[in-house]
Amino acid sequence: MIIKQFKLIYFRTPIIVKLLITILILMCFFGILIHFVEPSQFPTIFEGIWWAFVTAATVGFGDFAPVTTSGRLIGILLILTGGGLIGFYITSIASGTIKREQDIEYGRLVYKGTGHLVFVGWNERTRQLIKVVLENNPNENIVLIDRTLRHVSFNEYPIHFIHGDATEDTILAKANIRHADRALITAELIKNERQADTYTILATVAIRGNNENIPIIAEVLSKTQIENALRAGATTIVRSNDFMSALFYHELTHSIAVTPFEDILHILSKQQFLHLPLAPELEKKQFAAISHHLLKGDHLLLGIIRDKQYRIHPSADFVLEHGDVLVTLARL
Question: Mind telling me which residue stretches traverse the membrane in this protein (predicted)?
Fold first, then answer.
């Protein structure tokens, strides 16, 4: 039973640790041996071990050296065995470091942190979002899951990349989805709308199955798939098609040149949209009065949510009621 447990521990031990233990045992053996063979040259066992390490590492300080034939034969044997082991140990460390860097770049390494953001899908929107998030919070940890991207340079994008399918539990486990703070699923634009939405919904189901409480923001292209995404467990639905259509219409109906919309989006990236429950003391008050009240706290009131319906910029005399949710814009 003891032998079986020892074998189990031995085979589970990383090769670097095995090599280090072997080198330590071998150096101690040669150090003790040379001490007994030439006690005058090596008065203590520690000095013998010191000589063994210096000789095997081919450093050769020359402070200790065997003078007898027996001692020199031991030195030759040490060089042939210990020197090769130490060289292999150093090479293993170097190759292990390179392999780890490659595993990070090619998305093979498990993420072990907590409280991170999980992004599913790599596209221009994701790239810009990563940039905005890190500009506003450089300490934010981001894990990207994508099945089409081959590798991500950490120097260019300081994120943790996981290569794989976000609908698979093993891939989500690599991203440590159970301890993530939020998840964002972007649509795969290289596919048609139905296929892209199907993947988004399946990824939502998989994420919700692995983490019951995580907020999931899902991008849906087709209006008919919104209910399915909500049933799958998405907490927020983003319909980029509707937004882009409204933006195009706005540009088509305005002949006078205005500030480029991307500049406006950059400004908005420095702000934060918030949903605030209506405080009891603000019930039965008009929209204008509540808006003035919130401005004192650096909150710009955009509208409300009532019965799951958005009402943006209602009239000034619009009266708010119990259960309304305020939609505000605040500085980050």
Answer: 15-37, 49-66, 73-90
Contact 51, 64 (CB under 8 A): yes
CATH of the domain at 28: 1.10.287.70
Q: How many domains does the chain have?
A: 3
β-pair partners for 312: 303
Does residue 196 share a domain with residue 292? no
Chain center to CA of 189: 23
* Alpha-carbon span 149 to 164, nearest angstrom: 9
What tens digit of pLDDT does each residue of 238-252 get? 887 665 565 566 556
For residue 20, with 0-12 CB atoms within 10 Å meaning exposed, 13-18 middle and 19 or more buried, which class applies? middle
Residue 51, amino acid: W
Which of 116 and 6 is assigned the larger pLDDT? 116
**Is 255 a member of any domain?**
no
DSSP secondary structure, 94-147, as one string: HHHHHHHHHHHHTT-SPP--SS-EEEE--SHHHHHHHHHHHHH-TT--EEEEES
Pick from 17-21, 87-91, 182-186: least confident: 87-91
